[in-house]
Every structure is written in structure tokens, then in C-alpha cells.
Design brief:
Layout lengths: L9 E2 H8 L11 E2 L2 E2 L10 E3 L12 H6 L4 E4 L9 E3 L3 H13 L5 E6 L4 H12 L5 E3 L9 H7 L7 E5 L7 H9 L3 E4 L7 H4 L2 H8 L11 E5 L15 E6 L7 E8 L4 E7 L2 E7 L4 H16 L4 H9 L9 E5 L2 E6 L5 H13 L6 E6 L8 H13 L4 E5 L4 H9 L7 E4 L2 H11 L5 E5 L6 H21 L2
Parallel strand pairs: 3-4, 4-5, 5-6, 7-9, 7-10, 8-9, 10-11, 11-12, 12-13, 17-21, 18-19, 18-21, 19-20
Antiparallel strand pairs: 1-2, 13-14, 14-15, 16-17
Helix pairs in contact: 1-3, 3-5, 4-9, 4-10, 11-12, 12-13, 14-15
């Protein structure tokens, strides 16, 4: 089945009623076919959401989007009368109100996913499974915050059967806002890590913030928790909802993975639970992806998917970009995990690097892990020690990454093979000088460090170097 992506017949009058906005009588019957806040991504017939950001004011692009075929604009001040617009006090607040109003018109079962790591992968797995049997919409890419998730809802067909939503947060109250908009029928917390601990103070704080997802759960809803996470195991019966657990080591879970086996580029395991038993093959590696798959499988079985839908979707699964994607480039094996980084996900990525079979060297290019607060120095040091067990050469970049160097040296790496940089260009220069085709290179760092730029620069220079060497033959 194909994923549904377009909004069905929403008029400016409806939009204004949902957000308390003003629209002129001559424009209120205009129909919108989708919503965007990005002027570059606008499709003719879309409503453009003009948002005031820290550096850019979306209102400045209104003339451009109208020339590109925008059907209307959501703005925070009056516009020339020829421009169809809904005018509100605050466009971000209005966007969320519009999404909430639109959600009330949808017939979909909403499946919501949160957790410290693995949200996007789990969302992609679940959407792939559900799409085998139902008309399914999902949050694109990483649209999981209080702007992205409402936009995701608004760009789903109101007649879709399943809506798979990813929910992220980094402060108290944000998950509460998201879940009241989405009003999920099934909500999953897949893990509790240390991402955003700077704002939430402790893992208990992270748990409290994640559990806000329960506030919007609909009557008759279902909660899904990781039964191998000690902070989640005692929640059965705490809420007036059916609660399901998935896990590997905790045999009391409702859905269990057993007989897990790894190969170079795939993972197989048996699933038992909810009256079903079947074998799954993932074209990815690592225990973390078994957990991601188990969360998706539990939600899928509870939503009416059959084992054949699950096995077919997961054996062909392709992860979202910049998330532990492994590929060959100019003779190198690249592990692209640039999207984000925390202690848990970085340790996983380093373990995968360490298990890679190669006749060359294993290189870890590690950027800062952000939002760790007082734990930043200790966690970077710990990651350095883990890197020492899995990499032959460690290149660290960022303000706190010097602690990775300290940890790696303590872990036994020679001083020559662990280097700190404060320039991305210097990282790339050293990579080109210290590596050769046949090596395996992991790129990993927090979103704010932009390790994808280091990867792009390296690939460009490696391609050029390979072309020059071939022309000399």
C-alpha cells in the first residue's frame, strides 16, 4: 500500500475556526492541499506557515511563496487584501491548534513513539509494517517536535487508517503539548537514556517528561514499554490503560525476542508474543535494532498487522538517512551515524565499528555529545574508553571532545592514534593522510556539531583522490 501524504479538502474557514484566526469572507472557501513552513519545499496549493525564528522571519518569504503557487498564508499581521491569509497572534501556537482541530476530523488510529534513542528507526520500521496492510501516514524524517509533528499530522490524509507519529522533547511540558494534539491510541516509550539530561536534570526527570505522553492517550488506549528498562518495568497497572511490554532478557514481557544471531550485515531472531510466533530477519546489525524492531512489532501486532506483514517489511527495511547507514565509497566502508549522538547511541555505534570485518583499520570520527550538562565531561571520557576498545584511530572534534581523547588514552590507545581538533577541515585533512581504501570509518556526533559536513568533505576529497590515482595508472 502507498503512504498517504496529502491533506483532504481543508478550507481557510475551517482553519480559522480551529485557531481563532481571521480570514476575509472572499477567501474563506479556498481549499488547502497541504502545509509547509519551508518556502523552498512549497507545493502549489499549500498553505505557507510564516514562522518568526531566531535568525529568519518566515514572513519575509511571503511574496516568494505566493509567486510559487501558495494557496494561502498563515501570518501574524495583516497582509495586502489580495493575499489569501489566516491572521493570528502567534503562528506557532496557531499551527498546533490547527493540527489539533484537523486531528479531530481524522479516522486514523494514531501510534505514537517516544524514547531517548531509536525513535526515528522504530517509527520507520512500524510505518513500513503497517503500510503492508493499511493506508498509513507517518512523520517524515525527524519531524518530532512542536512544529514538525503538527505539520506531519496536517499533511496526512484524513481518511488514512494508521498514523505513525514520532514525538521528541527536551523540556518538561513539551511531550504533554504534543500528545494532547496527537491524541494517540497506542503510545510507546522505547527506552530511557541520557539525551537532554542537561534540561531534565536526571534519568528520573527524563522518565517523567516521557511519561507525559500518557496524558493524551485516548480511552481504550494501549501503552507499550521496554520491559528490559528497569525504570519502566513497574508501570503495569499504574495507568487506566492496557500495558504491554517488549524485551529480550525479561521473560515476563508480552513480546519477546529469542535466538538472536548476527552476521556481517543482518540480524535474525525469533518473536513470541500476543499469540504469535515467527522469525524476523533485519538487514541491519546490533542489539539496539532488535529492541527497535520489537517495539514496532508489538505496536503492529496490537494494531492488527499479521506476522507476514512484519517479516516482509522488516526484511526489506531501509533506515532513515544519517542513522547507522553503512556503505562503500571510494574504497572505504563508511558508517554514517551523523544525525545525533548521546552516550548510549555512541556506544552502540562504536560496538558496530569494532565488529566490522576488515583487512584495514577501524577509525572513529567523534563529535561532541550535546545537552549532557554536568555529566558531559564524564560521559565523553567514558566514550573515549569505549572507543579505545573498538577503533585503531580516534579523531575527536568539538568543545568537550577533548575528554574523549583523555578516555581513549586511559583505555590504552597510543597518543599518536587519538587526536583532538577544533576545525572540521583539519579532521578531514588528517583523515585523508592517515587512512586508505579498505579502512572502516564511523562518523558520529550530535546534531549541533554537524558531523555530516565532515563526512561530505571527506567523501568529496576521497573521490577526487581516487580519480587522480586512477588517471595516473
Amino acid at each position: 500500500m502507498n503512504e498517504v501524504k496529502q491533506t483532504s479538502g481543508v478550507t481557510l474557514k475551517q482553519i480559522a475556526s480551529w485557531c481563532g484566526g481571521a480570514v476575509s469572507h472572499e477567501h474563506e472557501s479556498i481549499v488547502i492541499n497541504g502545509f509547509t513552513k519551508d518556502s523552498r519545499a512549497l507545493i502549489a496549493g499549500n498553505m505557507y506557515i510564516a514562522i518568526r525564528g531566531a535568525r529568519v522571519d518566515g514572513h519575509d518569504y511571503i511574496p516568494q511563496v505566493m509567486d510559487s503557487g501558495a494557496a494561502a498564508v498563515l501570518a501574524d499581521h495583516l497582509l495586502p487584501p489580495e493575499i489569501p491569509a489566516v491572521v493570528v497572534k502567534n503562528t506557532e501556537t496557531a499551527l498546533r491548534a490547527i493540527a489539533s482541530g484537523y486531528r479531530a476530523t481524522m479516522h486514523a488510529k494514531v501510534l505514537a513513539i517516544t524514547g531517548s534513542v531509536g525513535k526515528t528507526t522504530t517509527k520507520e520500521m512500524l510505518a513500513a509494517i503497517m503500510n503492508k496492510a493499511f493506508a498509513t501516514g507517518k512523520t517524515p524524517a525527524n519531524y518530532n517536535n512542536n512544529i514538525g509533528m503538527p505539520l506531519s499530522i496536517l499533511n496526512m490524509d484524513r481518511n488514512c487508517q494508521i498514523a505513525v507519529l514520532e514525538m521528541g522533547m527536551n523540556h518538561f511540558g513539551e511531550m504533554s503539548e504534543l500528545t494532547h494534539i496527537a491524541r494517540p491510541n497506542i503510545a510507546a516509550i522505547i527506552n530511557i537514556g541520557t539525551m537532554h539530561i542537561e534540561n531534565l536534570h536526571s534519568r528520573k526527570g527524563i522518565l517523567k517528561a516521557k511519561l507525559e505522553i500518557v496524558e493524551g492517550l485516548q480511552p481504550g488506549g494501549v501503552l507499550v514499554f521496554n520491559g528490559d528498562e528497569p525504570m519502566l518495568t513497574d508501570l503495569r497497572g499504574k495507568y487506566p490503560f492496557r500495558t504491554l511490554y517488549f524485551g529480550i532478557t525479561n521473560k515476563e514481557c508480552d513480546v519477546i525476542a529469542e535466538n538472536i544471531a548476527y552476521s556481517e550485515d543482518s540480524t535474525t531472531f525469533d518473536v513470541h508474543g500476543l499469540g504469535k510466533s515467527f522469525k524476523v530477519k533485519l538487514p541491519t546489525e546490533g542489539m539496539h535494532n532488535v529492541y527497535n524492531a520489537l517495539a514496532a512489532i508489538t505496536m503492529a501486532l496490537e494494531s492488527g498487522a499479521q506476522p507476514e506483514h512484519i517479516t516482509a517489511a522488516l526484511q526489506d527495511f531501509t533506515n532513515a538517512s544519517m542513522r547507522l547507514n553503512t556503505y562503500e565509497r571510494s574504497g572505504y566502508t563508511i558508517i554514517d551515524d551523523c544525525y545525533n549522538a548521546g552516550p548510549e547511541s555512541t556506544a552502540v555505534a562504536l560496538g558496530i565499528l569494532g565488529r566490522k570485518k576488515t583487512d584495514g583499520s577501524r577509525i572513529a570520527v567523534l563529535g561532541d555529545m550535546l545537552e549532557l550538562g554536568r555529566r558531559a565531561n564524564a560521559e565523553h571520557y567514558r566514550i573515549g574508553r569505549i572507543a579505545a576498545q573498538n577503533a585503531d584511530l580516534i579523531l575527536a572534534y568539538g568543545k568537550t571532545a577533548e575528554r574523549i581523547v583523555s578516555g581513549a588514552l586511559t583505555g590504552g590507545v597510543s597518543q599518536r592514534n587519538v587526536v583532538f581538533f577544533d576545525s572540521q577541515e583539519e579532521v578531514v585533512k588528517t583523515l585523508l593522510n592517515r587512512t586508505q581504501p579498505g579502512d572502516v570509518i564511523l562518523f558520529k556526533g550530535s546534531r549541533g556539531v554537524h558531523m555530516e559536513r565532515v563526512l561530505a568533505m571527506f567523501e568529496e576529497q576521497a573521490d577526487k583522490k581516487l580519480a587522480e590515482s586512477e588517471s595516473d595508472v
